[in-house]
Amino acid sequence: MEKPRNIFRVCSLLMAFLFAYSASVQLNDPDWYFWFPLYTLAFAVNLINSKRVSKSRRIKQITRTTLSLGLFLLVKVVAEDVLTEKVGVLSLDLTHRVVREKIGSALVIASMVLQLRASSSKPKEKCVDFGKE
Asked: Which of 62, 88, 96, 130 is deepest in the core (most CB within 10 A)?
């Protein structure tokens, strides 16, 4: 029954590497001060939880902060896209900066929601009473 936990660990590690790369390429961006902390915090949470799901209060606070920052930046990017009308809100054309930022913040949001759900789930009992229904 350890298989779902192992899949979660591998996915957390892969997302940590993705967010580390994303943080590294943000350093030459004009608004790096928004995106670098977002990707760095997402990297840290995923890396910590790839070893074991942390139930630490501090890690949960960092995860919630990262989720809030991701939501703020997603709203910022969508509002910028609606106001400038350069791309469409539902566009997936990665040649545009706005689309890349929308996808990046959406990935951070999805990852943080999954990390919060994993850290708040209660472990199931593994004991079995034989002969009882």
From this structure: 62
Which structural domain, as residue segments, surrounds residue 34?
Answer: 3-120
Q: What is the DSSP letter of 52?
A: S
Instruction: Please tell me the distance from the alpha carbon of residue 108 to that of residue 31, in angstroms, as a whole number.
Output: 17
- What is the CA 73 to chain-centroid distance, rounded? 13
Residue 106 in tokens: 């959406």
Backbone φ and ψ for 72, nearest 5 degrees, come out as -60, -45
* Domain count across the chain: 1
pTM for the model stands at 0.84
* The total number of residues written for the chain in this structure: 133
Residue 69 and residue 71: Cα distance in Å, rounded? 5
CB 108 within 8 A of CB 77: no
Q: What are 94's two structure tokens? A: 């990665």
Residue 126 lies in a domain: no
